[in-house]
Amino acid sequence: MSRVRVVPMVHDPDESKRALAQVRRPVIGRIRLACVLSAVGALAGLAPFVGLVELADTLLAPSIDRDRAAVVAVLIVLGLVLRGVFLSAALTITHVADVRLQAILRRRMIAHLGRVPLGWFARNSSGRLRKTAMGDVDALHQLVAHHAVEMTAAAVTPLGALAYLVVLDWRLALLAVATIPLYVAAYVWMERGSSEVMRKLDESNARLSSAVVEFISGIAVVKAFGRARKAHAAYRQAAAEYTDFFAAWVQPMNRVEALAGLAVSAPVVGLVTIVGGVWFVGQGWVSPGEALGCVLLACVVPVAIEPLGFGALNQRAAAAAALRIQQLLDVAPLPAPASPQRPAGRRVEYDDVQFAYDDHDVLHGVTFTCEPGSVTALVGPSGSGKSTLATLLLRFHDVTGGAIRIGGVDVRHIDPAELYRHVGFVLQDVRLLGGSIRDNVALGRPQATDAEIRAACRAAQIHDRITALPRGYDSVAGQDVQLSGGEAQRVSIARALLADTPVLVLDEATAFADPESEAAIQDALSRLAEGRTVLVIAHRLSTITPADQIVVLDRGQVVETGTHTELLAAQGQYARMWTAHEEVPA
C-alpha cells in the first residue's frame, strides 16, 4: 500500500550545485554571453597599464618620440572606454536575465503550488514556504546579475596581467604574485568544512524565519491570553541559536582573514614589488618602465582576486537557495487523470477507505454512503479521522487504499477543476484573499453578476455588514476592513452559496465564531445545505441531531452508524458522547 510521506529538505553540496544549474538553465545563454563581454572588457581594462609601461619607456628615452606618446595616450583612453562599454553591456544583460529568471521561477512556483495537494501546505511551515517563494528567489539576484560578470572579470584581469608580465620578463610575473600563496593558504584554511557550516547556518536561518512568521501570525491570540512572553520564547531561542552559531563560526576566521587581507593589500604588494623592481632594474633585467608596470599590475592582481572569495560565499548561498526552490518544484503534484470523467449524480461513497502518512495509519477501511440530498455527520474523539475523511473527499490527499466516489466516479478520475465544481467546502480556518469582498465571494464563480453576489451574501446574512462599509463590496479585506471570525465565516458561506456545488463539506464551520455570530452562521448554513449532499464535521453534538445519518469514528474506524435517535437507543459510544455533551454547562 502506498503512503503519503513528508520528505525532509536536505542540503547536499553536489545536489545544491545540480539544483543551481537546473534553476539557472532558462537564462544560462544570456549569462554566458555576458561573461564573454565581461572578459573582453577586462582585457580592454589592461590596456591603460600596458600603455603606461610604453609611455614610461618613451618618456624616459634620451629622445622623446612625441607621436608615439600621443598614440599610446589615445590607446589608454580607448581601453578605458571599451572597458566601460563592454562591462556595462554585460551587466545590462545579466540584470535583464535576473528579472526574467525571477519571473519564470515565481510563475513556475505559483503554477506548481496550484497543483500540489492542499494537505501538503498543512504540514509545511508557512515561514519556510514564504522564505523559499520570496527570499530564496531574491537570493539568486547577486549570483545571476553580478556574480558571473564580476567573477569573469576577476579571473581574466589577473591572468591577462600575469600573461603580459611573462611577456615582459618571467621574474616580474613571479614578483607580482609573491604574496598570493599566503592569501591562498589562509583561504583554504577558512574553507575547511564550510559546506557543513553553510548547511547548518541555512537551517538555523530557516528556523528563525519560521519563528518570526508564526509569532507574528498568532500575536493577537497570545496577547489576548497574556502569553506573549512565553510565545516569544521560540523566537528568542531561534535568534539566540542563529547568533551563537554565526559568532562561533566567524570569530576565529576574522583574525585569519585580517592577516590574509594584509598579505594582498595594496601597500604590502606595492612595497614588495617596488623593492623587487628596484633590484631588477639595478641588475639590468628590466627597464624602469617595465618595473613600473609590474608595480601597477601587481596591485591589480589582488584587487581582482579578492572578489573571488566573496563570490564563492555568494555562490554557496545561492546554491542553497536554488536547492530549496528545486525541492519545492519537485513536490509531487496531485495526479491528474489521463481520461477525466464527470460525476453522474450527488451520491458520495466511501469504500474501504484507508489512509496513512509518515508510516502512521490514520484510517482503516472506512465505508459509508452519503445519499443525494442528505446530511451525514462525522463525530468522534479528537484524532479519530473526521477531518481527514473530509479532506480526502476534497483531494487534499489521495487515499492510500480503497476509493471515494462522487456520482459513481472515483475522485482520482475527476479533473481537479471539475471536482471543485461539484464539491464545495466551508472549513473552520477561513482564509480571505487580499482583494475586495466582491472578489472573495466570487472566487468560485468569477463571472457571477453583482445581483448574484449580493443574493448570496444576503442568504449568508453578511450583506448588511458589507453595505455598511465605506466602500461596500469594493472594500479590501485586511486593508479597508478587518472582519471578525464570524463575519469572515459568513463571507466563506456566501462564497459556497454562489459556487452552488451539489456536494458540500462543512468542517466545524462555527468553531471560531463569536456567540453573536453563531446563530446567524447556523441559519446561513441551513440555507446552504438545502438540496445538497452534505458532509458535516462537528464537535458539538447538538448541532447535528437532525442529520439523516451520523457516522461515529474512533481511531480511524467506523464504530457506529445511524440517526441520533437510533444511536442513543443503541447505548454505544455515541450515547456516551451525548451524555458527556449534555453534562457540559452551556
From TrEMBL:
One Pfam family named in its UniProt record: ABC_membrane
Compartments where located: Cell membrane
Topological type in the membrane: Multi-pass membrane protein
Transmembrane regions listed in the UniProt entry: 31-50, 70-97, 148-166, 172-190, 258-279, 285-305
Major localization class: membrane
Keywords carried by this UniProt record: ATP-binding, Membrane, Nucleotide-binding, Transmembrane, Transmembrane helix
Domain ABC transmembrane type-1: 33-298
Domain ABC transporter: 348-580
PANTHER family: ATP-BINDING CASSETTE SUB-FAMILY B, ATP-BINDING CASSETTE SUB-FAMILY B MEMBER 6
Name of this chain's protein: ABC transporter transmembrane region
Source species taxonomy: Bacteria, Bacillati, Actinomycetota, Actinomycetes, Pseudonocardiales
